[in-house]
Specification:
Elements lengths: L1 E5 L4 H12 L3 E6 L14 E4 L5 H10 L4 E4 L6 H6 L1 H21 L4 E7 L22 H20 L2 E7 L1 E3 L15 H10 L5 E4 L11 E2 L1 E3 H17 L4 E5 L5 E2 H12 L5 E4 L8 E2 L4 H7 L8 H14 L11
Parallel strand pairs: 1-2, 1-4, 2-3, 4-5, 5-6, 6-11, 7-10, 8-13, 9-14
Antiparallel strand pairs: 9-12
Helix pairs in contact: 1-7, 2-4, 4-5, 6-8, 8-10
């Protein structure tokens, strides 16, 4: 199939493109590099440098290139920024995504995979979280993603759009070629590895008084390659029209911040000094997904999401790219 991937120069998008190419698909990446990296674009992919919300550019592309399916990763993703600048999130994740979807539909593409988030659930009432859990986002990021999920459902009903929205919990790890390099960085594993490489300041754990085994927050970490493979299964499913709607991507197991820190120490062989800071506002004690629906309907299971494997793959990539895509391991 020929697949259009928005945000294919980003973290999850680049690994997904890698898996798609390996599976024999033809890929077109559209990215404006506001947060993605040129070196993260797979060399076998056709690159269109543009904002996915630029309907004229997208229309030109789709009029001259037949596309069988779309994977939509692009958009705003930082939770903290969404609380201070919600307009940019609703512009990108709702308004521009609707414009993009309109051009996709206008050109006859019926298969659409959407990169959503566990932030649509808000504060968990029960864990592990299933797809039937209430959706009450506590930040504009989660709200914007949930709004576009609802748009997709109405388009399915009215226009026969086949779609699946994949709700990630905590993407982590790296493939052999592509890894995590955000600016600013907000994810635990790369932050810990940064502290290993630059140990001048102690790593800060935000709160150790939660109702968990060691007092630190527990999260569900999923290897980015497992997430990419879920996208491939979702694409095959929507092409058949056999399933639609939202699916969690989680490992169904949680690890505390301290457990992840100790795993980093074990993998790197280096002690990681840390201090305990105050809680961050809105941090639930436990966020763990049930992936039973994804397993039952699509046959997915996490193959690479063992915590040691996640950290080892991220550390291997970090050593080759000590400051992200702007650097390479010395030859």
């Amino acid at each position: 199939m020929k697949v259009l991937v928005t945000g294919g120069a980003g973290y999850v998008g680049s690994v997904c493109v890698e898996e798609l190419v390996t599976a024999g698909h033809e890929i077109v990446v559209i990215d404006d590099f506001r947060s993605g990296h040129r070196d993260a674009v797979h060399p076998a992919a056709q690159l269109v440098e543009a904002d996915f919300g630029d309907t004229a550019a997208v229309r030109r592309l789709l009029q001259k290139t037949h596309i069988d399916a779309v994977m939509h990763f692009a958009g705003e993703t930082l939770v903290t920024k969404s609380m201070t600048d919600p307009q940019s999130y609703f512009n990108a994740n709702v308004a521009s995504s609707i414009d993009f979807l309109g051009v996709v539909r206008e050109n006859g593409v019926k298969a659409f995979i959407f990169s959503s988030t566990a932030a649509v659930y808000g504060e968990p009432i029960a864990t592990p979280i299933t797809e039937s859990h209430s959706t009450k986002p506590i930040n504009a990021y989660g709200e914007s993603k949930l709004m576009f999920e609802r748009v997709l459902e109405w388009y399915r009903r009215a226009y026969s759009l086949n779609y699946i929205a994949l709700r990630y919990f905590n993407a982590a790890g790296a493939s052999s070629a592509y890894g995590e390099a955000h600016s600013p960085e907000s994810h635990l594993v790369p932050l810990l590895l940064d502290s290993v490489v630059h140990p001048a300041q102690k790593f800060v754990i935000h709160g150790q008084d939660y109702d968990t085994q060691d007092g630190t927050c527990v999260r569900d970490y999923v290897h980015v390659v497992d997430i990419a493979q879920a996208h491939l299964l979702a694409m095959e499913t929507v092409k058949l029209g056999s399933h639609h709607g939202a699916y969690n991507i989680g490992s169904s197991h949680g690890h505390s911040v301290l457990q992840v820190l100790r795993a980093v120490e074990q993998v790197t062989g280096r002690e990681l000094p840390f201090r305990i800071g105050p809680r961050r506002q809105g941090d639930p004690a436990v966020l763990v997904a049930s992936h039973q629906k994804l397993a039952t309907d699509l046959g997915w299971s996490p193959r690479f999401s063992d915590l040691q494997n996640i950290v080892r793959s991220a550390w291997t990539w970090k050593q080759r790219h000590p400051v992200g895509y702007d650097s390479r391991e010395p030859s």
